[in-house]
């Protein structure tokens, strides 16, 4: 059959386009079996059936079309839109992922010079932006499981490719979450394995920075992961309590306000050590982070997360205080200012949170009382109680200390800022570092 031309569709093909927009997968399947239907036919605008299905957000349909050989990189659309761009516009995370896994190119631009990620961002589909920016195919990693050139041995043992890939594509950059992923996999939680992994990551960074289409975002992410792996190695080698010790250091809050000081320093230090000093992304990060005094907003983690994943609003109350996972909804029943995904995360964080929990409770109550008196006179808006689930610690470790307070609600919108507003000066033993508390700034000076 002749290669598809714009607008040159058979009767069955136009029927296919119709059933695609209706979402009739069964009928589409039947039509695709007909010899008069080309899976990559083009309508008058140069749109393929896959583009139509992606734009309409029909995941099952996309799957069917891909099974029938739909070309993810067809670029005949009149404005240069690709199937991935349509997926991003639709906001369907599933379709975006599916099309990426089918080999869609990420850096293609449309007629106005926008990539799929930029298009998705433009219409506010941030989850799709995250998925696109963090995509790294398994095949790309699998290259390192085969010996290359004169190497006798592959750089990455086959058994490590799966666990490493899982970490590479994570969108939760919280260092604790990453250390836990290492810790929970016995294949990875090993000095030798981690060494191999971080060396592969370093090779990927080099590739990202040297290829024609430089990908600084991916390079920065790989650098961050490599840095964490190296930290894991040093804890495995030198510390009694191994990776638990690293998790504890990363979570430990300073006495004044519970702010995770070490974690902040750790991330700043990591950014500063990015090997390509002149990278635009690095300079952008430095400009944003350096002027912020440790303990204030934004945190290095929130800036890094936003840069790498495109996620905004890290200060929302919906992120787990311990591991950074999204959509956490269990609140500490005493202070009600921190949230966790589950009791494990709460337990993990309790050793440090217990020191400030009461203080946080008091400041929250003070804040609420102020708000109340402000509102009084204006209106008597009834105070609705929070919808979020309360964590009522059941374990004996807590029940002695945590007394769940009454049903008074706290506005989740206040949590993030409330906690950070509390942060004042760093505690005594850190004062010496106050002047030089912008470690990331030094890299710029080398220009
Ligand atoms: Zn968590
Ligand atoms: Zn608390």
TrEMBL record:
Domain of life from the UniProt record: Eukaryota
Domain named MYND-type: residues: 320-357
Molecular function terms, GO-annotated: zinc ion binding
GO cellular component terms, A-Z: cilium
Compositional bias (Basic and acidic residues): 425-436
UniProt xrefs under SUPFAM superfamilies: Ankyrin repeat, HIT/MYND zinc finger-like
Principal location listed in the UniProt entry: other
Keyword set, alphabetical order: ANK repeat, Cell projection, Cilium, Metal-binding, Repeat, Zinc, Zinc-finger
Start-end of each ANK repeat: 45-77, 79-111
Protein's cellular compartments: Cell projection, Cilium
InterPro entries noted in UniProt: Ankyrin-MYND_dom_contain_2, Ankyrin_rpt, Ankyrin_rpt-contain_sf, Znf_MYND
Skewed-composition ranges (Polar residues): 393-404
Region called Disordered, residue ranges: 367-447
Stored PANTHER family: ANKYRIN REPEAT AND MYND DOMAIN-CONTAINING PROTEIN 2
Official protein name in the record: MYND-type domain-containing protein
């Amino acid at each position: 059959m002749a290669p598809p031309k714009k607008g040159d569709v058979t009767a069955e093909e136009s029927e296919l386009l119709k059933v695609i927009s209706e979402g009739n997968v069964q009928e589409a399947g039947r039509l695709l079996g007909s010899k008069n239907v080309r899976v990559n036919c083009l309508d008058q605008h140069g749109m393929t059936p896959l583009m139509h299905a992606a734009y309409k957000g029909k995941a099952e349909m996309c799957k069917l079309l891909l099974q029938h050989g739909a070309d993810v990189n067809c670029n005949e659309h009149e404005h240069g839109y690709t199937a991935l761009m349509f997926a991003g516009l639709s906001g369907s995370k599933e379709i975006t992922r599916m099309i990426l896994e089918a080999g869609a190119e990420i850096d293609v631009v449309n007629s106005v010079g926008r990539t799929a990620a930029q298009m998705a961002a433009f219409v506010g589909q941030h989850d799709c932006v995250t998925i696109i920016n963090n995509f790294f195919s398994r095949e790309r990693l699998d290259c390192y499981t085969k010996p290359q050139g004169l190497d006798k041995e592959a750089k990455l043992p086959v058994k490590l490719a799966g666990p490493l890939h899982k970490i590479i594509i994570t969108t939760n950059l919280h260092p604790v979450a990453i250390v836990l992923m290492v810790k929970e996999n016995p294949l990875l939680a090993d000095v030798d394995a981690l060494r191999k992994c971080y060396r592969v990551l370093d090779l990927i960074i080099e590739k990202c920075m040297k290829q024609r289409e430089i990908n600084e975002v991916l390079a920065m992410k790989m650098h961050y992961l490599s840095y964490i792996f190296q930290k894991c190695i040093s804890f495995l080698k030198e510390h009694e309590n191994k990776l638990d010790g690293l998790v504890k250091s990363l979570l430990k809050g300073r006495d004044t306000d519970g702010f995770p000081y070490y974690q902040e320093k750790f991330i700043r230090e990591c950014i500063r050590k990015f090997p390509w000093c002149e990278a635009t992304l690095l300079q952008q990060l430095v400009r944003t982070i350096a002027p912020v005094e440790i303990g204030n907003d934004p945190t290095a983690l929130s800036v890094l997360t936003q840069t790498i994943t495109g996620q905004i609003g890290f200060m929302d109350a919906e992120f787990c205080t311990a591991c950074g996972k999204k959509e956490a909804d269990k609140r500490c029943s005493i202070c009600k200012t921190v949230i966790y995904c589950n009791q494990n995360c709460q337990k993990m964080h309790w050793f440090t949170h217990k020191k400030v929990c009461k203080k946080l409770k008091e400041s929250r109550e003070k804040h609420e009382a102020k708000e109340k008196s402000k509102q009084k006179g204006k209106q008597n808006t009834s105070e609705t109680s929070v919808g979020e689930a309360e964590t009522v610690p059941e374990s004996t470790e807590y029940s002695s200390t945590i007394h769940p307070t009454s049903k008074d609600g706290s506005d989740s919108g206040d949590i993030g800022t409330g906690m950070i507003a509390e942060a004042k000066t760093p505690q005594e033993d850190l004062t010496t570092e106050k002047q030089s508390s912008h470690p990331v700034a030094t890299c710029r000076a080398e220009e």
